Amino acid sequence: MSNTDNGAEKKPAEQEEWQTQPLIAKALYRQLSTKLVTLLLTFIVVLTLISTLFYQQSERSRFLIEGELIPLKQQFEQLQALHKAAYLVNELLFIDSGMNFVKLQTELIAVNRQLLRLKSSNTHLYQQWLNANKSANDIVVRIQQTNERNEQLKQSSIIQLQLMWFSVTQIINKKTTQQELLFKQLQADKINDKLTLSRANAYVSAISKLHHLQQLKSLLAEVLTRFEQLTIHTNIENFDLLRLGVGQIITQRSALKIDDKTKAMVDFDQQIRTFEAIVLTEKMALVKWHSYIRLIQNYQFDLTIQNNQLIKLLAEPQEKQAIHVSGVLNDWLIKINDKFNVNVTQEALSITLLLAIILSLLFLCYLLWFLREQIKVAAQQSELLIDKNIPAENSGDVHANGAKTLEVMPQVQSLAKPAHNEQAQALLVYTQTTNPPLIGPPAKDNKEAVFDFGQFLHYQGSIELALFMLDDYTQGNHQQLDTLIDAIKAKDLDKAKEVIIDLQFNAKILVAVELAQLCSQWLTLLCGNDLPNSVKEMNVLVKETRAALTAIDNYAESI
Known about the structure:
Layout: H1 2-8, H2 12-20, H3 28-31, H4 33-94, H5 101-117, H6 123-135, H7 137-191, H8 197-228, H9 236-255, H10 263-281, H11 285-315, H12 328-340, H13 346-389, H14 403-416, H15 422-434, H16 453-460, H17 463-489, H18 493-510, H19 513-526, H20 535-558
């Protein structure tokens, strides 16, 4: 009655307005077809817009990775490679010896190849570096191979010069002593007026030899210093001075007219011959070092050019590189911008798609609300029609707001006309009250009923369901008893207790007092401690339980 009351509570003006509208006998789903199609199309538009937005975001992520992040990564890797190349070139330019030339040159070539693999506007320059460094491989190998030999020649020359310096020092000390002795003799001869020309000439000769020896000692010290400072970075001018000093040592020794056969003089002569063999004649240390320095300087000249180019590249500001990545939306956006001379960005496109999705969702919600209101109005109209056409006097004139309502109205009117009047209904109730029907047949031999069918019928709610469930319960009881016997044989007491509890539940539903009492006896027996000695009692309970179930079956059959 609530729906009818709600319909009756409408404003009279609204009811009068609806009643004046023409009624169209059309099915409700046909009346809503246009709205449903619009709703479906709107839903498809929303899905399309959402899919486009997700695709556009995916494309933007791809553009960011491929168009900016990857170039930025390549630019960073190129900068790292340039710094490493600059470090290697500096090592090769300023290293003190040629021991690690091959290793450093190999690393430099690897860095050049790495720079070539990176996309850059300086690819041509990197290719020049790679070609120059690869062509210098043989030079680098020669430099490293001759490095150890030249160092040995240098050390041998230094040792000989040190020995020669010590020997000359001893000779000078000895000559100084002899000069002082001659000077004393000349002083004594002068006092005694015995000064002779030969003694004066000997003194002058000693002074001259001592002076030449001191010059030779100074020259040895200078040449020794130049040899110690000799490296791969020594320029040709300094090397020429070293070679000139070596020549002066040989010349001055030849100019010395010292015929002493002392051990110091003999050692000095031997040492100067060995030195001459090392640096000039046999091992030709000066010639080899000259070629060595020339080779290194030519190699380092090319490295210096490369180093200057590296410094220039590293000093230049790094420009941001952006690569155009092709995409459907991106290309379409570029065409739109070029055609209409606008500047629509990816961000603006994302915002537009988002706003379109929001508006479409709002429109979808409006359509759903409008559809609900139309269905609600149709239901209210149906209520008013039923209220209007149910009275018997309107049975010949039926108005409907839909084809289905027009079909249902005659059936509603027939239900509104009862087949009997209130006096007949009252007489029927009185007859049933004074002569109630039997709820199941009486028990045989005037015994009490095995179970209360009336209460069981009350539990089930209807006679049909009660009869159906009664058959199910009776069959289930026998199955439970068989399961109980199997559990006792298997000595599974837990299973036996579960079966008795289920059987007891069925007894309560059937209101079977005797079966409920037997279930209580079973539980007491199964919970006892003297179960192994209760076989006889169990057999008796099995027989009594089966008899009780048979009695229930017979009573159910009679019903």
